[in-house]
Design goal:
Elements: E1 2-5, E2 12-15, E3 22-25, H1 28-34, E4 39-45, E5 49-52, E6 58-63, E7 66-70, E8 77-82, E9 87-91, E10 103-107
Parallel strand pairs: 3-10
Antiparallel strand pairs: 1-2, 2-5, 3-4, 4-9, 6-7, 7-8, 8-9
């Protein structure tokens, strides 16, 4: 069991299955939502993700068919969900445990913050691939 939570502890979750490969997203939307140079994410099957000990999640539709879910108290991003999918996009900064996954690439490098330099050996993609 892998667990996670928000900054204030209002939202807690458990993951009973595998967390997918880690992707670092540099799109403008992720940068704005997280207030950082990029967002580190991984897929988790809907059936493996369970919210526990929470009052309610805030939700924002950041693009058509894609909603971002966050703690309404401290604003920690928890996950995103696209309509018609059977997985969530977990925001790895909310994890309390090691995801036991590997990072595989950087995406949306075409929208990367100008003040940040990539210094890694991971593949870089101008958009989502």
């Amino acid at each position: 069991m892998i667990t996670g939570s928000c900054l204030c502890g209002n939202v807690k979750y458990e993951i009973s299955g595998k967390i997918g490969d880690i992707v670092h997203c540099h799109c403008k939307t992720c940068r704005k939502a997280h207030g950082s140079a990029f967002s580190s994410v991984a897929g988790v099957n809907d059936s493996d993700f369970k919210l526990v000990g929470y009052a309610a999640l805030g939700c924002y539709e950041s693009s058509p068919g894609k909603s971002r879910y966050f703690c309404p108290i401290c604003a920690t991003q928890i996950y995103a969900k696209k309509e018609g999918t059977k997985h969530i996009v977990l925001r790895l900064g909310s994890l309390d445990d090691d995801p036991k996954s590997k990072e595989i690439n950087h995406i949306w490098v075409s929208q990367k913050a100008s003040w940040y330099s990539l210094n890694s050996n991971l593949p870089e993609h101008l958009e989502f691939e």
